[in-house]
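Quick entry between incubations.
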Amino acid sequence: AQSVTQLDSQVPVFEEAPVELRCNYSSSVSVYLFWYVQYPNQGLQLLLKYLSGSTLVKGINGFEAEFNKSQTSFHLRKPSVHISDTAEYFCAVSRKGGYQKVTFGIGTKLQVIP
Amino acid sequence: DGGITQSPKYLFRKEGQNVTLSCEQNLNHDAMYWYRQDPGQGLRLIYYSQIVNDFQKGDIAEGYSVSREKKESFPLTVTSAQKNPTAFYLCASKAGDSGANVLTFGAGSRLTVL
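Done. Structure below.
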C-alpha cells in the first residue's frame, strides 16, 4: 500500500516571500510523484511530476520540487510567491508501471498575504 | 480544445433522491475515474474504468454506481444509499498508453443534499 502525508494543512506567506510545502510518502516499491494545484471551485491541474532521472523537477508557474528517496520526501518550493498562487496544493503518489492507483494527500492551502 | 466536461456544476437534491453526474471527455483517453473531495480529506477514489464496459470499485464505492458504455462517457449515480452525499465530485481521465499515471481533471460538480 502507498500513502502520502502533507504535513501542513494551511500555509500563510507574504507576497514575494519564499514558500515550501512539505510532502512525505510511503511505499515499498518505486514510485511516481506529483503535485497538483486546485483553485477555488475548480478541478486539479498538474503542477509538476517526478518519474525518474534528475531529482529536481521544475514545473509551471515557477514551482519546483525535489525528490529525496532517503527521506521519502517530495517538497514543493517557490522562491517568490504571488497573490495568484493562493490555492490548494495536493501531493500524490503512484507505483511505477502501467495503470496504478494514484493516492492523494489531504492538501495544503497556500494563502498569500499582500 | 480537448478536455473533460462535467455537468452540472452545482446540483441540489432532496434526501432519498438518486442523482446522476455527467462526465464527458474528448481526449481519447482509455481510463476514467471518479473522486470525491471533502474539506480536509483530500481526494478519495470512488470508481474507475480502464476500458469500455468494464469498471472497478475504488476506496469508497458504497452508495454509488457507474457505467461505461462509451469511451467518452463515465456517468456517476449517487444513490439514496449514500449516507453523506454532499461533496465536490471530480472526474478524471488518463491515456491508456501513459505509464506515468498523469491524470487530467474536469472542473468538478458540487452536490448538496438538502
